[in-house]
Design a protein that fits this description.
Elements (H helix, E strand, L loop, with lengths): L11 E4 L7 E3 H4 L2 E9 L8 E6 L2 E6 L5 E7 H6 L2 E9 L5 E9 L1 E3 L5 E5 L7 E2 L1 H4 L2 E10 L4 E8 L2 E6 L4 E7 H6 L4 E9 L5 E9 L1 E2 L5 E5 L7 E3 H4 L2 E10 L6 E6 L2 E6 L5 E7 H5 L3 E9 L5 E9 L1 E3 L6
Parallel strand pairs: 2-9, 11-18, 20-27
Antiparallel strand pairs: 1-3, 3-6, 4-5, 4-7, 7-8, 10-12, 12-15, 13-14, 13-16, 16-17, 19-21, 21-24, 22-23, 22-25, 25-26
Length: 321
């Protein structure tokens, strides 16, 4: 007697959820996703070949001893193809072939996260001065929009890329002042990339303009020392008002120092840009030149110091007619 066996028995092929929620996000699209499942029953045996064609790409593996199988799939293929079949090829003891299959359906969620990025003024006055150009400048701003779990901000300045993380909707990134000074268009380019809880991404860009002012210049002028620019006997025994004006970036409150005979006299610039200080006539007699220096800062914080000297004559001989 003999037994006629002309047909192998198919088994059950089950495909697990594609990702934890059966949803492929934009983030997962860029990754390798492990598609798993089981193949049991019928004539299915360990080492039977598992095949899935996804988005035109063929992926293969084998059934393990415990009936589990696993395919390493390009996330982009799963994003493009949301329904596919997994087949297991088996052969029974009589040599009959059979194919067992299971299907999978999932969702591709490409909805971007709506987000905005704002840049605070670059420095308090939106101007890079000489000190800031030689140091470090902190650029800050805020991120608004839909809920997200993480975000990265990228700043591009003078071709150099700086990055920082979004914390509580804010960011703070230190950049080199030299890059701000050298940037050809004086514009900071900012971009934020965020990811929400589902794994979808979003991005936004913004720009911020600033000025560069690296130099300040103050000027100072000394008027005639006395009406005739001559120190006489009477003036040599009293105080003489040495006065003048300032210009350019020199302004109200800037310090003026007057040096005569090695003695320094101090005063400040008045609201009309004039200055005046009382000098001992004896110091003027002991010298024949006055030097005045004005020091201060321009409106963006650049420091300056400017000096000028003025000579005068002496006539303290009371015996002259």
């Amino acid at each position: 007697t003999f037994t006629l066996d002309t047909q192998a028995e198919s088994g059950n092929v089950i495909v697990d959820s594609i990702t934890s929620d059966d949803v492929v996000t934009e983030t997962e699209k860029e990754q390798t996703i492990f598609v798993t499942g089981t193949a049991t029953g019928g004539d299915i045996q360990p080492n039977d070949v598992v095949t899935a064609v996804i988005n035109g790409a063929t992926y293969t593996s084998v059934v393990k001893e415990n009936g589990i199988w696993e395919l390493s799939v390009n996330g982009e293929d799963l994003a493009e193809d949301t329904e596919f079949t997994v087949s297991v090829s088996s052969t029974d003891s009589a040599g009959n072939s059979v194919s067992s299959s299971g299907t999978s359906t999932h969702i591709y969620d490409s909805t971007p996260v709506n987000v905005n990025i704002d840049i605070d003024p670059i420095t308090e006055d939106s101007v890079i001065n000489a000190t800031e150009a030689q140091g470090t400048v902190t650029i800050t701003g805020s991120i608004t929009g839909e809920d997200y779990v993480s975000g990265t901000v990228t700043l591009t300045i003078n071709g150099v890329v700086y990055t920082g993380q979004v914390i509580d909707g804010k960011y703070s990134i230190d950049v080199n002042g030299s890059d701000l000074n050298s940037d050809s268009d004086n514009i900071v380019d900012a971009k934020v990339d965020v990811v929400n809880e589902a794994g979808n991404v979003g991005s936004a860009t913004s720009t911020e303009f600033y000025l560069v002012d690296l130099a300040a210049r103050g000027t100072i002028f000394i008027e005639s020392i006395t009406d005739d620019n001559v120190i006489n006997q009477s003036e040599s025994e009293s105080t003489v008002s040495v006065k003048g004006t300032v210009g350019r970036d020199a302004d109200t409150g800037d310090q003026v120092s007057v040096v005569v005979n090695g003695v320094t006299y101090l005063t400040v610039v008045q609201s009309d840009k004039t200055w005046s200080v009382d000098v001992q006539g004896s110091d003027l007699v002991a010298d024949n030149s006055v030097t005045a220096t004005v020091t201060g800062q321009d409106w963006v914080g650049n420091e300056f110091s400017s000096s000028i000297s003025r000579t005068y004559d002496l006539d303290t001989d009371i015996s002259k007619p």
